[in-house]
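Write out the bound-state structure for zinc ion.
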Amino acid sequence: MQVRSYAALDPKSSLVPHMIERRKPGPRDVLIEIEFSGICHSDIHMARNEWGIALFPVVPGHEIVGRVKEVGNQVTKFKVGQRVGVGCMVDSCRTCGSCKEGLEQYCDQGFVGTYGALERDGKTLTYGGYSTHIVTQEDFVLRIPENLDPAAAAPLLCAGITTYSPLRYVGLGKGQKLGVLGLGGLGHMAVKIGASFGAEVTVLSGSLSKQADAKSLGAADFALTSDPASMDKLQNHFDFIIDTVAAKHDINQAFGLLKREGTLIMVGASEKPLDLGVFSLIFRRRKMLGSLIGGIRETQEMLDHCGKHGITSTIEMIAAEKINEAYERMIKGQVKYRFVIDAKTF
Ligand code: NAP
Ligand code: ZN
Ligand code: ZN
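---
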């Protein structure tokens, strides 16, 4: 079936309306009528091919919420009308050690990205959520708690799980101090989720204009990274810092803020290498940890956690024709705190 979408036809052009083909649902497929699609900074990296891995045309969008419109005859987990989501992955090998452990994001053969990638047949291009419908195999579809606002729940599918997963992995909890570096889409979810785990959260931001929001998002404190006095006060302060910055920046400053044996959790994916001064690691036995989204099982756990605690993203809803403008604002760090596209406008 032909559906409407917005696509980057090449890495240099703005996104434009574009028709794409969605497959007829197979026996284990779910056809979803998309209601809302979040804009992740990864969409910008991919649409502009900044990581050098995108296949064009790129129809971005991996924070997808909608309702089930049709199910294949072997689908057991979902019913027509149910509210569901799709995140960053639509398939994986399902047989390697990582897949068997529910860590499909670390699949030995590479997971199939929701967009800009090839299906496991090696031929069919995947298209993401900036469109009216998507067809996804049921094992990669998530249940969205019905008590959550569906538009504000969409960003949980990437920004939510990408911050939830490493914070769970390191065992963040009461009595611990978490710094959140960069207050954008991922950063503001790290604040909300970190606070829900009982940690004392401090926002570490380059934007003074975001100071007023830090407390309402759930942070105990805010510090401006460009202010040397504030940074001095926080030396050796944090158990963990989650770094969500989308571009090249100084990670040595962040290491200095960690306690002995503290961990810098890297989720921001700058296309340029970051400079690491090893002494900031060596002298207090500090650590660095990378983390990629989260597995399907953990994504469902995160959604249920958010349902229970009433956690959603703080969003600005836009029409599809504003996508390119939204990208420019995100690059300037001016989103508060996630753009979500109303799928009726595709
Ligand atoms: P975003 O909403 O644009 O937020 C990024 C924030 O970083 C900005 O709001 C800004 O916060 C800060 N920043 C500081 N200097 C910047 C600069 N030169 N350019 C851009 N931002 C700057 O982005 P996002 O959607 O949260 O994504 C953040 C990064 O994580 C991206 O690189 C994205 O690709 C990556 N990502 C990784 C994973 C993963 O699995 N590891 C998953 C999703 C996304 P302040 O104004 O507070 O300084
Ligand atoms: Zn993302
Ligand atoms: Zn695998």
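---
The chain has a mean pLDDT of 97.
The chain is about 25% helix and 25% strand.
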